[in-house]
Amino acid sequence: MRHGKSGKTMGMHTSLRVAALRNMAISLINHGRIKTTLVRAKVLRSFVEPLVTAGKKNDLASRRYVLRKLPNPDAVKRLFNEVSPVFAERMGGYTRIMRTGRRKGDNADMAMIEFVDQVKSS
After folding, report:
1. Domain limits, the chain
2. Residue-wise pLDDT tens digits, 69-92
3. What is the pLDDT of residue 119?
4. CB 121: neighbour CB atoms within 10 A?
5. Cβ atoms within 10 Å of 118's Cβ, excluding its own
6. Residue pLDDT, tens place only, 50-64
7. Which H or E run includes 1?
8. Which of 118, 99, 114, 105 has its CA nearest to residue 37?
9. What does pTM read for this prediction?
10. Contacts of 44 (CB under 8 A, 6+ apart)
11. pLDDT tops 80 at residue 121
C-alpha cells in the first residue's frame, strides 16, 4: 500500500532521482536555463528554490547545506557569487517554467525552466 507516501517519483528509485535532480540543478545554475519534461521541471523547481534562498544568506552554515545538496564546488560558488545576489530583494519564485510542447518520440510534455531574472550563463 502507498499510505503516507507523497511527492513525485519521476519513475525512478530514490538514488537515481537524487542524482538526476543534482545534475539538473547543476546544469540550471551553470546555464541559467534547461529543457526537460514538465514533471521533472516541477520537481526541480522545488529542489532549486530552497538552495537559492540559502545562497542569499551567504554564511558558512548555508554554504555547507548547499554543498550537501549539490556536491559540486564550482556550481555552489556560482550560486553564491552570481545567482543568489540577483535575487536579494525577491522573496521567492526564482524560477519560471514555460511549456514548450510535446516530445516527438513519446509525446511527453516538455518544458523550459529558467531563472526569472536572467543570470548570465558562462
Report:
1. 14-115
2. 999 999 999 999 999 999 999 999
3. 61
4. 13
5. 10
6. 999 999 999 999 999
7. none
8. 99
9. 0.91
10. 21, 24, 25, 28, 36, 95, 113
11. no
CA dist 88 and 106 (Å) reads 40
- On whether the 14-115 domain is CATH 3.90.1030.10, my answer is yes
d(CA 68, CA 122): 23
Which pLDDT belongs to residue 7? 85
Q: How would DSSP label each residue in 61-94?
A: HHHHHHHHH---HHHHHHIIIIIGGGGSS--S--
| Sole residue written with cell 514538465 | 38
- pLDDT attached to residue 111: 98
The conformation of residue 120, written as its DSSP 8-state character, comes to P
Best CA proximity match to 69, nearest among 38, 98, 29: 29
Query: In degrees rounded to 5, what are phi and psi of residue 41?
Result: -65, -40
